[in-house]
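Quick question, first post here. What does this chain look like in 3D?
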Amino acid sequence: MTEKQFWNDPYQKEFTAAVVEQFTTQDGPAVVLDRTCFYATSGGQPHDLGTLNSIAVKDVRQESGRIVHILEKQLQSNTAAGAIDWRRRFDHMQQHSGQHILSAAFYRLFQAETSSFHLGEESCSIELSRRN
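> Answer (accepted):
Ran it through. Tokens below.
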């Protein structure tokens, strides 16, 4: 199982890891590491971008209990030096925090609960539901 370093320190920007597995998907070469600070797409929040050994990470997803990093090209090493796109991560963190603040206000003022939340490159959205 991959150690999820982003849970321990969401401000961590770089890390090193051992390669546990490499394989090819229809989206490109993939790698599973023993640890990562790349956040995988989950709960309406998009995955992190960045690099592993200077190779672009195109996608990060959870599959069968493991975090899979989809790369631009195959990794030619048993170790990986990772760096996340901090600007993107910080933007997502700010949007996520803002969503919690707005959701609490909508609930307190209008008893409207958050049904869904979506983070995007240009905008984010919050869907609310309310009992009549």
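Residues 86-110 form the longest helix (25 residues).
The helical segments are 5-8, 86-110.
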